[in-house]
Structures are given as C-alpha cells and as structure tokens.
Amino acid sequence: MFDELSGQVFKEWTLSRCTISVQGSGLDWARRRPYPLFTPRGSRGPRSLVDVTINVIANNIGEVAEEYLDAIPQRLQWRIWRFLEARGVCLHAWKLFSKLLLREDEEKTLGLFRFRQHICRPTDELKRYTQPMTSLTTDFITHLVISGGCEFTANEMLCLADVKNLGVLELLQPADEVSAVFPLVNDRLIRGWTEVENPFPLLRILRIWGDQFTTQESLRWVSKFPSLALYDVLGSREDWPSPHSHATDGGWELAELAPGLEDSLMRYLMLFAPLEETRYSRLRDLARSVDSDLVSLCSDSRCAVKFVADRQAPPLLDYLTDTAKVHMPTWDPDAASREAKSCHGVAFEPWAFWLYSFIGQLSQDRDMKSRGIQSGTQAVAGPFVLPSKPLACLFLGHSGRGGIPSKPPYVSRGLFSTSRYTFTRPGVMRGQRGTDPPPISKSRMNLVFSERAGSRLRRNKRQRLDDMLQSLSK
Questions:
Q1: Which of 60, 253, 272, 297 would you label with 231, given CA atoms 20 to 30 Å apart?
Q2: Residue 327 and residue 5: Cα distance in Å, rounded?
Q3: Are 420 and 411 in contact (CB under 8 A)?
Q4: Which candidate, 264, 229, 232, places its Cα nearest to that of 360?
C-alpha cells in the first residue's frame, strides 16, 4: 500500500483473533513454544516498539506463517531468530528461518542448519510426529529415532515410507533395564514399506537394533530402497545364521567389526572411504579424536557456517586420514548426558549428521540430483563439509537408563544371544553407471599399499596361529 500524504510504502494484514492458546496443548508439538512465557523489561525506561514487537512475534511464532515473515526486513528477521535461538526454537520456527536466512548472504550459524528435539514420552499417533517432519519440497532432510515408550502399531509404522525426505531412520529397542514398550519391527513391516510407491527415495542410513525382530531375509527388502547405503542391525543370532550369503545377493557387503571401535563415528565413516582397508597405529585414540571433534562441533549451534563453490571444499576424507590427530584428548560419549543430568540437550544426531554428509560427498549426492534437488554451493563449518540440505532430527522415547545411552544392551536371553551386523552397498556410492570413487593422492596411495601389506601379513599370521591351535585340539 502507498500513503500519498507521507510517501511511505507498507503492507497491511487483517488477522482473525487466535482461538488457540500458545501456552496450552492446542498447538502440536512442532509449534509449541519450548520456553515459558515472559515479558522482559528495558534496563532504562520503557522498551522500544521494535523490541516489544519482536517479543510478541517470538511468543506466538507457532502461529506465524511464512508469508508474514517475507515482508519483514532481513535485519529484523535476524533479530527475531537470535531472540528465539537464545531461548529455544520449535520445529516450526526453525523451518521458517532456516528457509529464509540460509538463502541470504550474511554469516550463518549451525543452528540454522540442524534442528534437534527429544520427546521423552510420545502420546500421539505416529503421524502427528512425522507430518511436521515431512517436506514435500525437500527443504530439509529428516533424521528420525523411535525407541522405548512408543506405543505405535505396525499399521502406524507403515506411514514412515510416506516421509519422502527421510534420510536416516533408527529403530532402537530399549535396553532390558528400561522395560519400556516398543513397536514390532519385523520383516513384514519392511516388506510393507516396499509396497509404497517410491519408498524412501533419500534414505541413506537404516539402523534397526532389537532382539528377535528382523532376520537376514530383510536384506532382500531393504535392497529396494534406492539410496540406502548402510543397513546397521543388532539382532538375534538365530535369525542371522548366514548373513554373508544373503548380503551378496542384494549387492551388500558385510563389514568386519573392529575391536574397540564398534560405537565410534569414525568406524562408520571409514566403511565408505576408499582407504577402508587402511590400518593405523593407535586406532582407538584416532577414533576418540575424530568423535570428539565432530560431536563437539555439532553440539555448538552458534558455530559459523559459510558457503563455498560446489566440490571446492576439502572432503571429510582428508580430515579422517590425518594421522596427527591421534594425539588429541579422548572423548567420553556419555559425558554430555551426565553434565546435563537430563536426556534433553544431548547431541544424539552427530552420528547421522556426519555420516549422511560423508555418503553424499562420496556419491556426489546422486539421489538428490536425480530428484532435481541441486545446489551450486557447499555448506562448510570450519574444515568440515555439512550435508547438502539442513537436517531436522527427532528422538522419540528412551533407549536406556538416562534416556539416550550410546548403545542399549540386550541381555534378557543372555549376553551372547544377539549379534551386530553392518552392511554397506558400494553400488549406491558408485551410481548406476559404476563410476569410480574419488581419486586418491599419490602420497595417500603409498600409505594404502604399505598399510595393506602389513594388514595381509597380520592376517596370514593369524591364519597360521589358527591352524596350529586346530592341530593341537585334534
């Protein structure tokens, strides 16, 4: 609108009075304000009209539509975002400002690039949680964890295949000590997902941990998910008698478990690296260093993020092969939980965040490009390349005592009744045409040959030792 008397140009909206209380339970979980309502006061006299307006918008952000924020000047958008970020951001607000501010030229923060929320006791049906996490235009990628205390039926679980932007799915049966209910996750459920049209087009990582749930037959069904590169299973030994033979049929490879590295982020990252056969001295120290760096960075929402030209940033692989990092201090994966004395605020998403990014770098985001989701830039935080799209992470329930432990144990039928299997699918990384992996520098190639030679020598020694022990047992 144009005011002829003053010469000012402005926009005006007429909104109906809100009938839903922001403080009550009328708004869904994604729009609910995570902090108590308060009215700040100016330190010297009355507060300015802008400050009062920002406070009102922040307190009612759950009912603000995107078109209302579009007309607000960018500098005020940043002030509203920083106000929210200092007090707590709901998913609805994060989706609004992540889409608005990431396309601007000013300095960004990691808080705009990843969202995290933990709901201890889910009481609604599953669709109430998945619908806000769904983006039909793929403005962000969803990482969903379902664990103990979730009373979802098998029919409800079928709706997960409708979340087309789902990139990471974790289904974690709670530890025995929690004695919490958990949905039935079996081969029939996975087969049901495959019957949905275009199931999980962007799902790269699937983790199912539980006793007497999925079997080795599930490999044939998860192979139908076009982008799935990692299938991580903890299941009953009885249900997985011959995983190797079933893996080969679907183009999967069964990774060996490295002693002491089962739960390290580095172990999963190196499964996909061209140097996957490389062995380092003091490998456990290196894994602790890698985990410490990546988890601590992902925990800081104020970390600066910048954008560089596509494929111009140093790949995460260069960081992983820096052997000088073995001298870094060690990291305790449960320290953050103990410090907070609560399951809230624990950074549970770094495992998925960095692994999803790494798979995207090595595969050149073919799954996204095939769906027309392309970008000419890469987001970088420090030396680390972030996922090609922001990540929204939601953890439902508890997987162990204390809320979110690093690994829930299953001992109800005995400590050795379950086993861990990690499958990777190299064909997804290479693409349909079987393109070559990223080139390795000459210096790193020499390292590969020397380390592989040492690895083969150690394997031969172990084989000779096994033969000698077998001969003695006869």
A1: 297
A2: 70
A3: no
A4: 229
